[in-house]
C-alpha cells in the first residue's frame, strides 16, 4: 500500500479536528462532490469525495484501524480504541469512497498539502527518510498515505476511484509531485522486501538528485536478494504510472514492513493514466 502508516513512537496521537480545505476550497469541493465519479455494480453505488465532517473522518480512521491493526497486526499508538489517529490527521484532507447503498466508507487516502506540511512542520515521510534533496519540490509536493480499502471491496473499483480523486486534486491545485511510502511485508524477515527492491531499482530508481535516505535502513546486505517475489499490485500500479523509487527501504518496526520511498512527478505520468484519471489528451 502506498501510505504513511501510523506507529512512529515519536508522535503521540492527538484529537482530530475537522479537516480544512486549504487550497481553493470551494473549487475542490465542487470538483469532488458535484463531479463525483461513480462505479455501479449490483448492490453497490460508489462515490469518491473529500470528507467534510468530523464524523466522516472518524469513520475513515476506524476503517484504517480495522485494516492496519486488526487485519495486518500493526501496533498503533492511539488514545481511542478502534481508531487509527495520529498527529498528521488534523492537518490532512481525507479522500474517501463511500458505498451509498450500504451507507459506509469503504476506502480512504489522506492528503497532506504543501501548506499543511509547513503548518505541521514536516511531511510524515520525513520521519522515515531524510528527504533533504527534495526540499526544492516542497512547495509543489503533496504527500499521500494511509491508503486502505475494506476487505469486501478489493476488486479494483475503489482504488480506481481513489486514484481518480487524487488525480483531480493534483490537477485542480496545479501540484507537480506526489510522495509517499510503498510498504512490503516483512513476515519472512525481510528477504522478500530486499529481493523486490534489488529487482525494481534497476528500472525504477530515481536520478541521484531526487535520492532520499532511510533513517532506519533495512539491512539489505544481511538479507537474501534473489527471491522471486511478485510486485504488490499497488506498487505495480504506481510504477506503471511513472513513479520512481527514491532510495533504499526503511524498516517500520510497528508495522513490520519495509517502506519504499516513492515519488511521482506528474510530468512522468504515463499517457494512459493521464488520459484515464486526469482527462488529458496528450
Automatic annotation (TrEMBL):
Its EC number is 2.3.2.30. Pathway: Lipid metabolism. Keywords: Acyltransferase, Lipid biosynthesis, Lipid metabolism, Transferase. Belongs to the acetyltransferase family. OlsB subfamily. This is L-ornithine N(alpha)-acyltransferase. GO terms for biological process: lipid metabolic process. Catalyzes the first step in the biosynthesis of ornithine lipids, which are phosphorus-free membrane lipids. Catalyzes the 3-hydroxyacyl-acyl carrier protein-dependent acylation of ornithine to form lyso-ornithine lipid (LOL). InterPro entries: Acyl_CoA_acyltransferase (IPR016181), Ornithine_N-alpha-AT (IPR052351). GO terms for molecular function: ornithine-acyl [acyl carrier protein] N-acyltransferase activity. The keyword Nucleotide-binding does not apply. It is an enzyme of class 2 (transferase). Pfam families: Acetyltransf_5 (PF13444). It comes from the Bacteria. It catalyses: a (3R)-hydroxyacyl-[ACP] + L-ornithine = a lyso-ornithine lipid + holo-[ACP] + H(+).
Amino acid at each position: 500500500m502506498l501510505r504513511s502508516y501510523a506507529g512512529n513512537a515519536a508522535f503521540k496521537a492527538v484529537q482530530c479536528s475537522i479537516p480544512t480545505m486549504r487550497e481553493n476550497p470551494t473549487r475542490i469541493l465542487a470538483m469532488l462532490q458535484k463531479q463525483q465519479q461513480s462505479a455501479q455494480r449490483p448492490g453497490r453505488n460508489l462515490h469518491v469525495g473529500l470528507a467534510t465532517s468530523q464524523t466522516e473522518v472518524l469513520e475513515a480512521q476506524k476503517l484504517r484501524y480495522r485494516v492496519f491493526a486488526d487485519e495486518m497486526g500493526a501496533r498503533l499508538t492511539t488514545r481511542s480504541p478502534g481508531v487509527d489517529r495520529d498527529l498528521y490527521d488534523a492537518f490532512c484532507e481525507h479522500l474517501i469512497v463511500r458505498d451509498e447503498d450500504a451507507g459506509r466508507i469503504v476506502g480512504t487516502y489522506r492528503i497532506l498539502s504543501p501548506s499543511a506540511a509547513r503548518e505541521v512542520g514536516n511531511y510524515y515521510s520525513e520521519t522515515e527518510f531524510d528527504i533533504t534533496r527534495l526540499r526544492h519540490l516542497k512547495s509543489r509536493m503533496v504527500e499521500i498515505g494511509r491508503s486502505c480499502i475494506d476487505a469486501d471491496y478489493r476488486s479494483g473499483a475503489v482504488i480506481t476511484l481513489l486514484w481518480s480523486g487524487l488525480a483531480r486534486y493534483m490537477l485542480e491545485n496545479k501540484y507537480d509531485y506526489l510522495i509517499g511510502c510503498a510498504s512490503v511485508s516483512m513476515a519472512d524477515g525481510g528477504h522478500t522486501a530486499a529481493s523486490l527492491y534489488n529487482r525494481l531499482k534497476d528500472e525504477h530508481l530515481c536520478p541521484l538528485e531526487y535520492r532520499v535516505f532511510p533513517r532506519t535502513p533495512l539491512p539489505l546486505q544481511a538479507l537474501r536478494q534473489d527471491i522471486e517475489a511478485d510486485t504488490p499490485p499497488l506498487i505495480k500500479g504506481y510504477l506503471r504510472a511513472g513513479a520512481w523509487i527514491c532510495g533504499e527501504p526503511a524498516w517500520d518496526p510497528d508495522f513490520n514492513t519495509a517502506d519504499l520511498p516513492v515519488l511521482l512527478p506528474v510530468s512522468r505520468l504515463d499517457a494512459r493514466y493521464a488520459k484515464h484519471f486526469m482527462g488529458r489528451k496528450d
